[in-house]
Amino acid sequence: PEYSAYFHSAKTTIMPHLKRIQKAHEDERKYKERIKELEMKLEQERLRNNALENKIRKITRGEL
Description:
The chain is an all-alpha fold. The protein is built from one helix and no strands.
């Protein structure tokens, strides 16, 4: 009872900040996950393009 006003004040002033921090952390995790997915797709596309370029080189050299 003696400190109830203090704890109530701390709860009402700190909790919104903690919730914003938690949301920012969750958003960052989601963004990192999405970036990882996009990097994997980019790598797959790069490998596909390299394979096509190699095939084109072979065709232009008459190797196929």
